[in-house]
């Protein structure tokens, strides 16, 4: 699962903008990662300027994004560079193109401690994984 936490100033995003932002993030993983859409979780967390400091200074124009990658990991440097490039393009309309400073990072969390509805996810690219993609929900296998 990619779990995205987006820390942002109050009022930075309307409900519709959050939905579109989340859809763009989800599209990245379904398109490039062949992951089921339900794997992608996006949490928007408003942070007041007096609680959001960069370099010790309050900010009301910054977005900080933390993404946990659990479903799939890569060690390939080329794929990591392409991932950063694609995500930068996906994030731009929701951040920098709106005048918001944006920083993001991705953590790769161990997969073996992850469960969905009490089910350990199937191995990537397995028949069970493909069924989860098609049905967009966890199915015992």
From TrEMBL:
<protein>
    <recommendedName>
        <fullName>Tautomerase cis-CaaD-like domain-containing protein</fullName>
    </recommendedName>
</protein>
<dbReference type="InterPro" id="IPR028116">
    <property type="entry name" value="Cis-CaaD-like"/>
</dbReference>
<dbReference type="Pfam" id="PF14832">
    <property type="entry name" value="Tautomerase_3"/>
</dbReference>
<feature type="domain" description="Tautomerase cis-CaaD-like">
    <location>
        <begin position="1"/>
        <end position="137"/>
    </location>
</feature>
<dbReference type="InterPro" id="IPR014347">
    <property type="entry name" value="Tautomerase/MIF_sf"/>
</dbReference>
């Amino acid at each position: 699962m990619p779990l995205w936490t987006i820390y942002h100033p109050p009022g930075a995003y309307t409900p519709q903008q959050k939905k579109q932002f989340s859809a763009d993030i989800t599209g990245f993983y379904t398109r490039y990662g062949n992951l089921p859409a339900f794997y992608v979780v996006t949490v928007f967390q408003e942070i007041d300027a007096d609680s959001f400091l960069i370099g010790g200074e309050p900010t009301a124009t910054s977005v900080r994004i933390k993404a946990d990658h659990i479903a799939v990991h890569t060690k390939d440097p080329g794929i990591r560079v392409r991932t950063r490039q694609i995500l930068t393009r996906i994030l731009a309309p929701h951040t920098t193109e709106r005048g918001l400073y944006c920083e993001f990072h991705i953590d790769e969390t161990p997969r073996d401690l992850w469960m969905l509805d009490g089910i350990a996810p199937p191995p990537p690219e397995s028949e069970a994984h493909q069924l989860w993609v098609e049905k967009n929900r966890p199915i015992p296998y």
